[in-house]
Amino acid sequence: MPDILRGGAILLAVLAVAALPLLADGYWLSIAVTIMMYTALSTSWALFSGPTHYIALSTGAFYGIGGYLVATGMSDFGTSFWTMMAIAPFVAALLAGAIGIATLRLSGVYFVIFTLGLAEMIRNLVSWVQNNFLGSKGLYVLTELEERHIYWMLLAVTLAVFLFGWRLGRSRMGFALRILGNDEEVARHVGIDTARTKVLLFMTTGFFAALVGAIVAPRYYYIEPNVVFSPELSFLVVIMALLGGTRRLYGPLLGVIPFTLLWEVVSASFPSATTMVLGLAFLLIVYLIPDGVTGLIGKLRKRSVP
Amino acid sequence: MIPGETILEVRGLTKRFGGLIAVNDLSFDVREHEVMGVIGPNGSGKSTTINLISGALRATSGSVSLEGHDLTAVRPHETARLGISRTFQLVRILPALSVLENAVAGAVFGHKRRWGRKADVFATDLLERVGLADKVAVPVSALTYIDQKRLELARALAGEPEVLLLDEWLAGLNPSELQVGIDLISSLRAEGRTVILVEHVMDAIRSLCDRCVVMNSGKKIAEGTPAEVLSDPHVIEAYLGDA
Predict the structure, then answer these.
(1) Residue A273 gets which letter from DSSP?
(2) Is residue B88 part of a domain?
(3) Where in the sequence is the domain holding B103, given as residue range(s)?
(4) ipTM of the predicted structure?
(5) B window 210-229, beta carbon within 8 A of A
(6) pTM of the complete model
(7) CB of B61 within 8 A of CB of B12?
(8) For residue B89, which residues of chain A lie inside 8 Å, CB to CB?
């Protein structure tokens, strides 16, 4: 019975969230789209980086691949938005697989630096190819899609990420990830193919990030590789996930909502201070709430129960 | 139990670290249901041998085979799946997992695989078997040293390995714990498990091992029953130095 109630409550909540564009438009809808986008990105990021502690700063690269492929496909090759949206995630997943095989042997800080450097390299490489070989004309993403359509598509992706994460948490692979996050040596010796597990999960996060990037592309209208392959986005995704906490599936969501609102205010009122706020937020979160909001709630709850 | 057929074959196993030869042309057989001791002074290459058999290190030359499967170039997770489980010289517990999950971890991906309720039941039985029945609900951080060792043993047993590698499992136990530990391994032997035991504790070797290999400076200097090897003049010399 409680399961049915819980399922009903989740269904109602999803319906309420889906109904939002009927109530809000303009400014608030655009904030809701941003929240939905970061929820999908942070949650899928946390599926890999949460249990394994491999902090990937490459979300922007995969997101950029999604946006860029849609743009170049539509502008340079005359393909439809839908075709490119369907192709982009697979391209990103393949790339993530290649990166994974090359880098996941690296540990700790080397992995972080490598993913950051790699994202920058992809950004510059794509810009270079675009400027020299493809586009003298700009990359336009002109679709009939309105903000609310993008919102609904992102909601569908977010739900897919949550469903995937929920299934993963109950699967052998999810268990394998937790073990290898605790001790990779032990993981190998109990029979876990750690390399394969990590690569597959990394590919999944790449897949979702590119899908989000593709869906969001029509919001930009005009796409420039330098903008869409955004290192800032990579950091934002990490900060939001850490703020919410990565130990629960819904953790990142609790970081995304407040941080998106804060980010809106900062970008509007103090546009020159965004980088500083980013750095400050990073420091504060890591020092004060290393396990995020959900970790903090868990701790307080434990303390209140004698 | 009477030892059966040869199950694990080590042939000419050699491991170099730069100029240092940690294991030098080592050969021995392990038979089914047998407890084989690997002993020797510090730095004689015992742990390296365990690491080579479990796949943690790759041999420079020579071979290890388990029931006809060549393990020499095989990665650790495949070694585990083929039926070799191990414990670690410095005990390695999974700190963020529960006691039960720590044991289940050994049951899900290893040699004989279980999942879900079956794995939980099997792991719970093993926890009982190693003497942790009343610690299932305790956080792993609160386990005593011997209980951590027990938990690691349960994890290693959970995949129902063909061969169990215990790397100084008794090291660091106090005298009363030591007897408990020896009794526990002795009961594994009574069950007919095949065990390779790296050990310093002489009492344990005498009472547990069917046969021993004695190593010194990476080489095998003696092999036989504990009584034989411990009276061997080469072995005495290796431990005590020239008289």
Answers:
(1) G
(2) yes
(3) 6-240
(4) 0.91
(5) none
(6) 0.89
(7) yes
(8) none
